[in-house]
């Protein structure tokens, strides 16, 4: 089965930066879409950033201009560079990949990000 493991989460002060890494057990180019989502306590899971196999990047409105999605396909890794963090960025961040045929989405266990002074 496809396995995804997130790392790099933790506690940071407002205005700080953090880099998350997602290690994927299979070649990331196999998937039609890869990226990150987050879920804050009491809220629904929301888009953070995704990129298609063709290179089209989509950012959530709340993170646009502050977060950057990147990938290293040779290492089967995805990255989320988070800058100018705010308290409302506090959430569990999930890595996800989408398989085209058959259509299946895979998710990591998530990594906690806490932005607090």
Describe this protein's structure.
The protein has strands at residues 4-7, 10-12, 18-24, 33-39, 46-52, 57-59, 67-72, 77-82, 91-99, 104-107, 111-115. With 117 residues, the chain is mostly beta strands. The protein is built from no helices and eleven strands.
Keywords:
117 residues, mainly beta, 7-stranded mixed beta sheet, 4-stranded antiparallel beta sheet, 0% helix
Sum up the overall morphology in one term: globular
Q: How many helices?
A: 0
**Pairing-aware structural class of the strands and helices?**
mainly beta
Low-confidence region ranges: none
Topology of this structure?
Blueprint: E1 4-7, E2 10-12, E3 18-24, E4 33-39, E5 46-52, E6 57-59, E7 67-72, E8 77-82, E9 91-99, E10 104-107, E11 111-115
In brief:
This protein has 117 residues and is mostly beta strands. The chain has no helices and eleven strands.
């Amino acid at each position: 089965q496809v396995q995804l493991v997130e790392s790099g989460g933790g506690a940071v002060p407002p205005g700080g930066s953090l880099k998350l890494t997602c290690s994927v057990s299979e070649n990331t180019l196999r998937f039609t879409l890869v990226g990150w989502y987050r879920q804050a306590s009491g809220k629904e899971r929301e888009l953070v950033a995704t990129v298609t196999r063709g290179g089209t990047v989509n950012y959530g409105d709340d993170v646009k201009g502050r977060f950057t999605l990147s990938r290293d396909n040779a290492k089967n890794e995805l990255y989320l560079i988070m800058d100018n963090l705010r308290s409302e960025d506090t959430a569990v961040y999930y890595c996800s990949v989408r398989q085209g045929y058959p259509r299946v989405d895979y998710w990591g266990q998530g990594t906690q990000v806490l932005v607090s002074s």
